[in-house]
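Renewal narrative, Specific Aim 1. Our central claim is that a sequence can be written position by position from structural information alone. The example that follows is taken directly from our test logs and has not been curated for this report. It begins with the structure tokens describing the chain, in the order in which they were read.
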């Protein structure tokens, strides 16, 4: 019944370790265009744990990513039937046993797939896919991925390579992480965008600040930089002359997008789930544990000690 506290969830609690504790929350009441999903696993994103948890009201249930099974199909007839395994995306609610989610933000998952690995897809996989779509056709193009060892970066490296691009991956420690990134498909690994051989046709930037500016300077004519992440925490300052256009720097662009504003995400999520389930995409899972151990993963992400995705198994 609406208002009953029967669902377990990770709740924001400023007094708890890492700002989260297991507790109870009211079952969500789906709108007609939403399905009710019983969550099996969720994955954490740096933006959630670093920015949202510290500022959220106590008792809030956050969580962008979740995978599970449809408990109750959407009343308007959209979306999959009850019992269907799905991967879901939303502004909140993923860190709970039950989630009400718009059917346009859910994708059907192959039967028998590891839902823990699938839960890494929504923000990381879909952001990488949409960013590369925005760059344009990739066959024969040169593309730089900054912050390449993070969740979005790992997906972007793999997808760009599969699309036929020459992939340059930038990471803070190329010596320690170069083998990993080459294994995912990178042709070259650099420690800073300024070290990349140009001109580049596209950049997927996950760091922002100084690295965004350095990556932009490597773009050739018609090149596109897609700004996705801001993990560097510093401002972008374009020195005088960087934005000049000439024969080699004609028609360059910096663009951004809001993932939940993109149409067709259900199709993207389903395709990505199929690729992960079939082993054709590495989910980038770096940590897995019970949601009772969420604090361990949160602190590791905040401290930049975890490169890749942290998966919480619900239950």
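The sequence written for that structure reads:
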């Amino acid at each position: 019944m609406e208002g009953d506290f029967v669902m377990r969830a990770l709740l924001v609690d400023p007094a708890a370790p890492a700002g989260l504790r297991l507790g109870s929350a009211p079952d969500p009441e789906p709108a007609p265009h939403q399905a009710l999903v019983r969550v099996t696993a969720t994955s954490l994103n740096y933006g959630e744990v670093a920015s949202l948890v510290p500022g959220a009201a106590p008792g809030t249930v956050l969580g962008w990513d979740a995978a599970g099974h449809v408990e109750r199909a959407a009343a308007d007839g959209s979306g999959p039937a009850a019992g269907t395994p799905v991967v879901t995306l939303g502004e909140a609610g993923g860190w709970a046993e039950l989630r009400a989610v718009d059917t346009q933000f859910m994708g059907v998952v192959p039967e028998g797939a590891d839902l823990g690995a699938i839960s890494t897809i929504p923000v990381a996989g879909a952001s990488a896919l949409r960013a590369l779509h925005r760059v344009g056709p990739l066959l024969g193009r040169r593309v730089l991925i900054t912050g390449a060892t993070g969740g979005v970066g790992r997906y972007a490296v793999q997808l760009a390579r599969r699309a036929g691009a020459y992939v340059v991956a930038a990471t803070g420690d190329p010596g320690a992480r170069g083998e990993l990134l080459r294994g995912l498909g990178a042709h070259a690994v650099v420690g800073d965008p300024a070290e990349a051989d140009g001109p580049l046709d596209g950049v997927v930037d996950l760091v922002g600040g100084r690295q965004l500016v350095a990556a932009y300077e490597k773009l050739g004519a018609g090149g596109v930089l897609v700004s996705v992440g801001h993990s560097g925490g510093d401002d972008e300052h374009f020195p005088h002359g960087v934005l000049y256009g000439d024969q080699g720097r004609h028609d360059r662009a910096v663009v951004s997008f809001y993932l939940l504003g993109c149409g067709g995400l259900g199709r993207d999520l389903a395709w990505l789930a199929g690729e992960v389930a079939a082993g054709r995409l590495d989910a980038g899972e770096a940590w897995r544990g019970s949601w009772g151990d969420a604090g361990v993963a949160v602190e590791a992400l905040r401290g930049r000690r975890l490169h890749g995705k942290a998966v919480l198994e619900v239950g």
